[in-house]
Amino acid sequence: MTEEYITLLDWRRRVADLYSGVRATLRTDAPATHALWRSTRDELFRTHPQSPLPVDERATFRGLPYFAYDPRFATRARVRPLPEERYDVPSSGEGVIPFVRIGAVDLEWGSLEVFWLDAYSGGVFLPFRDATAGKTTYGAGRYLLDTAKSADLGAVGDELVLDFNFAYHPSCRYDPKWVCPLAPPGNRLTVGIEAGERMS
Questions:
Q1: Into how many domains does the chain fold?
Q2: Is position 193 within any domain?
Q3: pLDDT tens digits along 80-112
Q4: What is the CA radius of gyration of the chain?
């Protein structure tokens, strides 16, 4: 059991290093940064003991599919304050996961609520579900930010960097053993965001 915790620590460290590199170069060369993010994720999925992929699928894994990088889906936004409200976000398992809604971001495609993980260490969580869900992307939605797991694109001044080209599927998309928070009703867009990770 100890080894499992140590490998999880290593996974989180590697993801944190990946996003640190993303934040360092995203503003100067977004397509190259995106390519590095993709290749590093592929390597982690293929070789790491904590990969979300089932063990028997790793040897034949050829890489995660993505939409081509599209700068139209790279934006920034201030968090518009909303009254703080405790919110039990639905999960892919039987239970819910406690968050606090802290605000919303208003984008050209619609508004998304922003949550703070109501647990030790906390973190900003920004999931979304759009019109591609169940068609070309995972039906339960994708994640844009999950800073408790180091998925953080940074900020410019008081604006969050929100680049949907870095949107990714939750771990439960690959294996039902993972229990993941899903996009609640306030985080559903009626348009298709053809950026980021896709199903095939």
A1: 1
A2: no
A3: 999 999 989 999 998 899 999 999 999 999 999
A4: 16
